[in-house]
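queue> holo job accepted (pyridoxal-5'-phosphate)
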Amino acid sequence: MNQHTQDIVKGHKMGYDDILQLDSACVWHPYSAMGKDQPIFAVESAIGVRLRLADGRQLIDGMSSWWCAIHGYNHPVMNEAIKVQLEQMSHVMFGGLTHQPAVMLAEKLVSLTPQALNSVFFSDSGSVSVEVAMKMAIQYWHDKGQPGKQHFLTIRSGYHGDTFGAMSVCDPVTGMHSLFSAVLTPQYFVDAPACRFGESCTDSDLAQMKTCLEQNNQHIAAVILEPVVQGAGGMRFYSAEYLKQIRQLCTEHNVLLILDEIATGFGRTGRLFACEHANIVPDIMCLGKALTGGYMTLAATLTTAEISSTISSGSPGLFMHGPTFMANPLACSAALASIDLLLSTPWQEKIRQIEKILHDNLAVCRQMEGVADVRVLGAIGVVELDRAVDMHTIQYEFVAQGVWVRPFGKLIYLMPPYVIEETDLHTLTAAVVNIVKNLSP
Ligand SMILES: *Cc1c(COP(=O)(O)O)cnc(C)c1O
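queue> job finished
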C-alpha cells in the first residue's frame, strides 16, 4: 500500500461526543425526528452478544439488531466467509451473469422451505421482497386471465415494510395510511384474530376474513400475513390453527397466500420457519432479516413452479423487477455461512432454553402495575404495558443497566441472539423486570 491508500484505510478515530454531535447535525435515524434531542448511542464495535460503545461502555444485546444478528457479532465463521468472498468479488450485476454464492444459496433456500417453493428471487431488503411478492401475485393473475385481481387482503396490526406497496398492507393506524392516502393503494383489512398461540380458533376469529374473501375474491390477488408472530405491528402471537384455516380459505376462493417470514424465519419462533407451526405451504414466501445472520442486507422471495411458470409463459413473459444489487455475492456468501452455522448447532434446543428463561423470568411482570400482558414464544419475550413508554427516560435506563433493549409504543421486548449465555440472558430479563417495576405511573 502506498501512503495515500494507507491514510484512507486507517482513517481517523472520532471521540464519542464528536460522533453524536455530527450525528445530530446531519443524520436521520429510523422513525425519528431530525435534530431533536433524542437518546442515541455511538457503537464502536461488537463481539458476541456485546455492543461496545465508543466511550468504552458495554451493552448486552437484547434485540439482535432487529431480529437479524442470530449468531451475535464478529463471529469468526461469518467473518471468514465474507473475507473469502471479498477476495473473489464483492459484487457483479445479476442481469445476464450468475455466480456460485447465488445458486448455492437459492438451492439451499429451496431445500429448507416447504417443498412446493422452488423459485427464488433475490432482493436487497425485506420491504423490497414484499413488493416483489405483491408484483408476482398481480402478474400471476394477469397471466391467468384475471387482471382484476390487483388488491390484497390482510389483518390489522401487521407490518410488512416501509415502501409504498408494503406500507399499503401495514396496519392502517401505525402505518399512517391517512397521511399517505393520495398515493397509497387501498387494500382490504380485517381484524387480527383474537385466538392466541397455542389456543384453537373459533368461527368468530375467521368470520371477517371469510366474508371478505367471499365478497371480494375477484379483486384480491393474495392474502398477505406474518405467520404466527406479528412483529413491528404489535408483537402479537396468534393461533397456528388460524393460519391453517386461512390457507384453506385462500385455496377455496382462488386467492394466493403470501407469508412474510422476514422476522420469523430462521428459527426465531422455535421452528425454522413459522409456517411449520401450522404445517402449511404458502404460494409466496418472503425472507430477510436473519437470512445473513445480520451481516449484510439481503432478502429473498420464493414461489412455486405454478406461479413462476405462469408468469414466465404469460405476457410479457418476464417478471418485471430487477434490483441493482440483486444477489450480491458478499451477502449470499454471508447467508450461506449463517445458515450452515445455524443448522450445525442444536439451535432448537437453544431456542427452547431461551424460551424457558424468558418465560420464567418475565412472568413476575404480570403482577406489576401498568402491565397489560406478558407473552413468550421461542426466542421472543414481550411485556406489553397499558400505555406507551417514555422513550427518553427508558432508553437511558436500559443503557444504565448495561443492556441494549429498544421498546416501542407499549411494548418492551427481548429477542436476543441465539448464542446468548444464560447469565447474560438473566441480566437482560432482570433489567426488564427492574425497569417495569419502577415505571413511573
Ligand atoms: C422488518 C420487516 C420487513 C421489512 O424489512 P426491511 O429489511 O426493513 O425492509 C417486512 N416484513 C416484516 C415482517 C418485517 O419484520
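queue> The longest strand covers residues 117-123.
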